[in-house]
Every structure is written in C-alpha cells, then in structure tokens.
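Why do we care about 3D structure at all? Because function follows from shape, and shape follows, mostly, from sequence. That is the central idea of this module. The next example makes it concrete: a single protein chain, its amino acid sequence, and then its structure expressed as tokens.
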Amino acid sequence: MEGDIAIAKAVSIRELGHDEVWLQDQICKNPSILGFGDLEVLDKERRQLHGGRLDILLKDPDNDAMYEVEVMLGETDETHIIRTIEYWNRERRRFPQRQHSAVLVAEHINRRFFEVIHLFSHSIPLIAIQASIIETAGAKSLLFTKILDAYDEPDDSANGSVYQECNEGYWRQESPGTLDTSKALLEAISPTFPTAELHYVNSYIAVLIDGQRYLKLETAGGNKSRLVFWFSKKVPPEVNELLAKTNLPYSTSKIDAKHNEQRLYIIADSKLIAGHSEIMAQLTQMTKLSWDK
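And the structure:
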C-alpha cells in the first residue's frame, strides 16, 4: 500500500558473521560514516609505546584535529572505556599541539556504562557512538548513531531551559572551584578589558564585556571547569596557531549554521588560567574581534 513504512529490526553484527576487524574496515573505508566529516585514516591497529593497539587513528585535514577510535561488539565493557581514554591520552601527549577526541564505537552501551561515559565526558572530550545493523524488508544497513558528545552543547535559547539569576554566594556553595576559576579568568583579562565583569546564573558564570557575553564557565568533573568561547562564524586559524604554541588541550563544536557561530572549549581550573593569563586575554580579544568585524 502506498505510503506504508517498513518496520526495521536490529540484527546482531556478530551473529551475521562479522567481527570487530570487519567493523574497523567499514570505518576506514569511509570515515565520514562516523559523522565527523571527511576525515583521513592515519593508522589502524596503531601499536602503543606501553602496550596495546589503538584500533583507528583519524585526522581532520582542515584543522589537524585527531580522533582516537576504539571499536567493540556486544555489551559495553569497562576495559574498553578505560582503554579508549588511555590511548587518547597517549596520542594527546605525543601531539600536544593538536585537538584530540576519544571515540568509543560500540554495539551496545547500556545505562550503567552510559552514566560512566557521561561522567568522564565532563573532563575528557569523549564521544560515544552506537554501531548497529538494521534489517528492513530483507535489506541490511550499517548505522552509526552518536549518543554522547561531550562538546555538543545544546542551544541555550532553544532547549527550553530556564536560567535563574543568582549571586556569588550560590556558586561558592554549589561549585567553589568554578567560582575560583572564573575569578582567575577575570583577573587575567581585566588589564585588556577593564570593563569585564562576572554575571551569575544557576547553570554557568558568564564573562560580560561592555554588557555582552563572549565566554562562560560551566562546572565539569574533577573540580575542573569548562571554559566556552563564542566565535562569530567559525574559530579563526589564528586561534589554532596560538593554542598550538601551548600544551593546552582544547576542542571545538561543529559550526552552528543557524546562529552562524562556533564554540571553543578548554577544560581548566584557576591554576591553569593563572599560568596562561596572556593566552586567555588573547583568546578573549580574538573572540570579541570576531563579532566586531
């Protein structure tokens, strides 16, 4: 009947006679299926200095961002989560000038391990992707679904969230580490932006310059904060060049076509901010300039 929609069902990848090597091959043949754009395959089964092999190492040719990918079938195993983070950390230390993301591709991520991954994602750029084979009317398709991305941030104005004004006392009680980091950031940029001030709401601390919000801080795990810079259109190459001179790990969001902007993220604490005060002032200057053009 015209207009009928076929009912699909999920099929076990292993029961179809495929293994993890097969799944790795599918990703390497067409890395874009992961949803990160047209990436290049740098290596497969990459031997690690202290043991083990990284399943796949991918690179974005536009900005040299790297993706450390681990693949597994069946139920999520905690050892794979730890291994993904270990390999990400080793490659990050090997190439400190580049942006790195840890990617776990798994067939099943149950609720328990989803919560574990989500907890790690507050301080680590961790992405979880579910791989599945879907059968519809006798035809089988391989499907990749991103279920968690630490740096995919919802639209503040459109997600239905209600933000309430609060004060310094609220943050001193709820997250003193984020408050201290925000004060360190304000001190770092005040020589360049004497009108900068902190603006407190219940979910983040914004930094206002002449009344405009260009960056904010959110609470992350491990007494860390996530520092968010808004750039008009996209993060300019000068920012990547500036951060390449430091050992600061950072990440960027996808370009938001609706709002014509892109966000840059740095996991920080007050000590990191104080040790990179000039860099923070320069990043803030670049952020503001992107909107002033």
